[in-house]
Structures are given as structure tokens and as C-alpha cells.
Amino acid sequence: MSAPHNRRSIFLGRMPLPERNYIADALRTETVGGVLLLAAAVVALIWANTLGASYETVRGFHLGPASLGLDLSIQHWAANGLLALFFFVAGIELKRELVAGELRDPKAAALPVVAALCGMAMPALVYAAVNVLGDGSLQGWAVPTATDIAFALAVLAVIGTSLPSALRAFLLTLAVVDDLFAIMIIAIFFTSTLNFLALGLAVAGLALFYLLLRKGIRGWYVYVPLGVVIWALMENSGVHATIAGVAMGLMLRCTRREDETHSPGEHIEHLVRPLSAGLAVPLFALFSAGVAISGGAVHDVFTRPETLGVVLGLIVGKALGIFGGTWLTARFTKARLNPDLQWPDLFAVAALAGIGFTVSLLIGELAFTEDLALADEIKASVLIGSLLAAVFAAILLKLRNAKYRTLFEEEERDEDQDGIPDIYEADKPEYHLRMAAILEAKAAEHRRLAEVAAETDARDDGPA
Against a cut of 0.85, is the pTM above it? Predict the structure, then answer.
């Protein structure tokens, strides 16, 4: 009897087809949203640097019922209201990953979770080190810890790289876990005073929301008004209102029953994601990314410890944290990297995760609410750091783009045109029989064409 041996798991290997299709659909929407996000950021910068007074007037304009504690500025509505949709989708994504995705299996989840944790801890440490040495403020330690998946995918779309689905899925899983910890950071470190009555009522509203879901009650006219009330109560409680969004997202059922093609969570995510990616996040960027950029401001970004810490955290901290955490975890768990990929590929994706736009801007606003001038400089550092991380990652990815294109075409090839990529059928006997029939039909067609050509040549060579 042979001795048992440990099989090494494959890291970044082929995903199950349903998971691959789901991720492809989700990333497609996020890519479109990312392009809109880029456009909104550019418009905000142009507006703030050409007609700065009107920009400040518009985003500082207040509206809403003061009696309900909702007389908020446009910028506040965008950050606390619209971003609640973004975090609602993040909550659904996280729930789905936990029950049906990469995070379902603890062994499979170890790599992306450790990578995300290291990818948040290292930027914070880089920021802290720069500010301790430079005698700066440690308030902004959380600013460079976030990853913006929509912005990252927009960069991939712009540079035209055919990144394999396994690397895209790893990037998405990283972003989901990253969002979870960003939410925890916001809830724990950026909650100052609490209104316990409003908080208690918000928790009661969430309990009712959950109870209605468990009872199988359907209808947007029930959940949308209830969700708005929960959000308003959370806004008045002192806890950041986006926490309400992620809490409701986590409550949705994301497992499919036998008679379902999509779970309720997947269905609602499919409806809300375009609204989040195409409207909520771009509008947040429009009213948050507008900072004055001048030669002096850029100089300050690279000389002031707070802003330099953010830039280095995004560029250096993210790349080293994600890559180092993944490599060490794979080493100790004996996970084997997909032979079609190399560790430099993972480093390029880690560098791409240094794009920390949406949540980094939000945390920057929360961290420096009492120093608006520094808050604007922090925003400028987020923009510059994200841009430099994008350029760095684009260069690394372009170096391997020919290999990525080959892998991508292999993943997408469907010779028998049955809607299922051939790579997912290669191990099935019926697939080989079908492919043999296709090849035989092609060979017969080639023989027939050769015979026709030979007959034509014979007639042409005959007597006139």
C-alpha cells in the first residue's frame, strides 16, 4: 500500500463555470462604472480648477428637512446617501462570497483574506512610518488602505489588457474583503458621538428588515421605504450612514434554491449595481474629487508627511502588502501557483490594487473634518497616488499582455458553439466525440474543396 501524499492546491486556477460567468457579468458592470467614475473625476478637477467658486457653491448647497436632521450639503448627500448604495452592493457581494464564492471554503479564502489584510496593514504602516519620521498627523492612517475595484477595472479597460479571469476574480475578491474592513474602520474609528435613541431605532429597523426577508415578504414598495428610514436613523445616530447599506446587503439570501436561477441577493444586486456603479459612485466623485491642483499643491503632496504617506501607502504599501501576504500564505499552505501564471503577474495585480479612489476619498473627508485645507491636500494625494499606482500597474501588465491574450482566448474558445467554453468541456468524453465529429466534418470539407480545385485545374490544362 502506497503512503498517502499531500496534494498541493492550485492558486489562481480555473474557476467553476457558474462562478466565472457571475464574476464576468459583475466586472463588466463595474468596468463601465469605472469609466464613468474616471470621467466624473476629470470633470470635478476641471470644474474646481476653472470655476472653483461655483463648484464650492454647488457642493456646499444644503437641502433636506432640517426637522429630521437631514439638512445636508450636496457633498454630504453624495458621501453618506449615494454611497449607501455602493456599500449595499458591497454587502451583497460579501454575503455571496461567504456562502457561494471564493470565501466559502476556509482554505480557499485564506489567500485573498490574508492578502487583503496585509494590503491594508502595510499601507497604514507606511503612512505611520512617514508621519512619525516627518512629525506629521497620524489621523490619516486609514486613507491609503482602500482599493477601488471600479477604478482598477477602468484602468484595465483603458490599457486594453486581456487579464485572465482568475486574476480578475482575485482582484474582485480582494476588493470585497477590502470593503468589509474599510466599513469596519469607518464604523469603529470615525464614530465620535452617538445618539443611542436613533441608533436603537435603526437597529430595530434592521431587525424588521431581516424578519420580513425571512418571512418571504416581497415588493420593493416595502423594502425601499424601510431602507430609507433605516438610513435616515443611522445618519442621525452618529454612525456613518453607509453602515446601514452594508448591513441590509448582508441580510439578503445569496444561495439558490432548486427552483431558482438566481438567488434574491443576486437578482437585487443585478438591479442595483448599475445604479451604484453608473450613478452613485460617479456623483460622489464629482462632488468629492474637485480639489485645486497647482504646482505648489503638487509640491506639497510630495513634501508634507500626511500627503506623502498617502501616496507611498498606495503605491508601495499596497503592492508589497498584497504580494507579500499572498506569497507567504501560499508558501506556508503549500498552495501551487497556476502554471500558466507567474508571481510577477500577481505583483502587477497587487500594484493595481493601489488605486484607492472612492473609499480613500471618503475616509480622507472623515479623518480631517476639522482641517478642510489639509482634507483637500489629502484628496489631492489620493488622486496622485492612485494615478501613479495605475501607471505603474499598467506598465507591469503590458509587459505580459501577449501571454494574457493567449490565456484569455483559450478561456473563451468555443469550437462547437454550444455557449460553453471548450476548456470546461475538455474532460468530458462526449466533448471529445463532438470535437472529433467537427474535425472530421472540417477535413471532409477540405477534401471536397481540394477535389473541386483539382477538377478545375484539369479543365484549365485541357485542349482549348
Answer: no
Residue 242's contacts (CB-CB under 8 Å, 6 or more residues apart) are 80, 83, 84, 86, 87, 183, 186, 362
Task: Enter the C-alpha cell of residue 229.
Answer: 428610514
How many other β-carbons are positioned within 10 Å of the β-carbon of residue 134? 14
Domain presence at residue 199: no
Q: How many domains in the chain?
A: 2
**161 φ/ψ angles, rounded to the nearest 5 degrees:** -90, 140
Distance from C-alpha of 375 to C-alpha of 364, rounded to nearest angstrom: 6
User: Do the strands 336-337 and 10-11 form a parallel or antiparallel pair, or are they unpaired?
Assistant: parallel
Blockwise average pLDDT, block size 10, the chain, 464 residues? 49 68 72 86 91 90 88 90 89 84 74 89 96 93 89 79 78 83 86 87 95 90 94 91 90 85 86 89 90 78 93 95 90 78 89 89 88 88 93 90 79 68 61 55 71 67 55
- Residue 16 CB burial class (10 angstroms; 0-12, 13-18, ≥19): exposed
The range of the structural domain enclosing residue 114 comes to 11-190+240-412
